[in-house]
Amino acid sequence: MAASKQANEKARVVGINHIALEVGSIDEALAFYDQLFDLALRGRSDKMAFIDIGDQFINLTEADSQHHDHDRHFGLVVDDKEKVRHRLEQRRSDHPGTRG
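-> structure tokens emitted (100 positions)
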């Protein structure tokens, strides 16, 4: 890493402000996250939605085409992992063949 003198001249990363995700449908993405979490919608337009997660947010943007990318991901800290796991299992039984 940088020397101490140089470190004092640089800003320090202290957290993540937001995550931006491209989705096929804003309505479907919001419905998916709403099944899992108690959400607060910060704002919405035809092609974008912003979901509050504490001091951070998720920015959903509707895109006409998406890249196939099975490795890209993000992690959320939740207050009850078992509730999320239960809801994901329910979703898998309601929507066979889906990953989430």
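Residues 23 and 29 are 7 Å apart (CA to CA).
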